[in-house]
Amino acid sequence: xxxxxxxxxxxxxxxxxxxxxxxxxxxxxxxxxxxxxxxxxxxxxxxxxxxxxxxxxxxxxxxxxxxxxxxxxxxxxxxxxxxxxxxxxxxxxxxxxxxxxxxxxxxxxxxxxxxxxxxxxxxxxxxxxxxxxxxxxxxxxxxxxxxxxxxxxxxxxxxxxxxxxxxxxxxxxxxxxxxxxxxxxxxxxxxxxxxxxxxxxxxxxxxxxxxxxxxxxxxxxxxxxxxxxxxxxxxxxxxxxxxxxxxxxxxxxxxxx
Length: 257
Description:
- The chain is mainly β.
- It has 1 helix and 15 strands.
- It has one helix at residues 2-18, and strands at residues 28-39, 45-56, 61-74, 79-89, 99-112, 115-127, 133-145, 155-167, 171-174, 180-184, 188-203, 206-217, 229-230, 237-238, 244-254.
- The strands form 3 sheets. An 11-stranded mixed beta barrel has the order 1-2-3-4-5-6-7-8-11-12-15. Strands 9-10 form a two-stranded antiparallel sheet. It has a two-stranded antiparallel sheet with strand order 13-14.
- A hairpin with a 2-residue loop joins β5 (99-112) and β6.
- The longest helix is centred in the N-terminal third of the chain and has 17 residues, at 2-18.
- The protein is globular and about 65 Å long.
């Protein structure tokens, strides 16, 4: 029927964006692995804490460790709100202050012909600011089906996310002759992530998620809000696209009191 065709179209769009060489540069491959522990102190509240170990380079080396704490409030069966904090550390330089992130999020679940679409809107503040943004607005929708009877209660999913950058470091934009035109941050819709994965049960209240994610940065609209900008004076690229792929392995466990 029409809803199944819409969902199929969204899946095809995600795969097209993930492999679109017009928007993307050559991407590198990284590995992220981590764990998460969750508790439910009340029927409405969920609190989780965990770490993510991020490997990159050739050969892969531990480049960052993210420590996260999140709290979620269940408003009703389909709507949730929450907030979280994250601190990212460089394993080669523990004395540095690292990077901090504060997130506020809102989730709304929709059900269509056996499929579920989990919509998530996040607002982030990053400290210290990144070169491309200090604030970031992220909208994602995850599609999955809980009615499929698969071994280990496996649940395949596809997740699409779009990111809007705000208040990055100021950048001088120049005309074709190299003359300065305006200095401002590269605000705008600049990134897309598509993730294909599966979540399955290892044991009671313990799940593992295996996925592959691809990030593509791009430019839309105003030429004086762009990233990956070439300086006409010397050909230098400023705020280069950060395109990469990630193999992600994550284990979660819910404690029962």
